[in-house]
Amino acid sequence: MVEFSEGKLEDDGRTLSVKHIRTIQQSSIGKCAHFIMMPEHYREDESCRCDDASHTEMAEWGYAWDGNLWH
After folding, report:
1. Among 21, 41, 44, 65, fewest CB within 10 Å belongs to which?
2. CA-CA distance, 63 to 22, in Å (whole number)?
3. Domain residue limits, the chain
4. pTM score, two decimals?
5. What is the rounded average pLDDT for all residues in the chain?
């Protein structure tokens, strides 16, 4: 899976487009209990954040925190 993030930097009327590409192994996505395919759901070591209470995007996606995991 690849994440494409875009940003723009403007200087003296010129615009520079910046892209960040992140690759996540399919096997890492497969280890997630919910098989979430959003790059921001994975840490730099490619472990999923289902056990991270501060990963509040999970609530936006409809999951509830039980004190240990997002379900």
Report:
1. 44
2. 24
3. 2-60
4. 0.71
5. 85
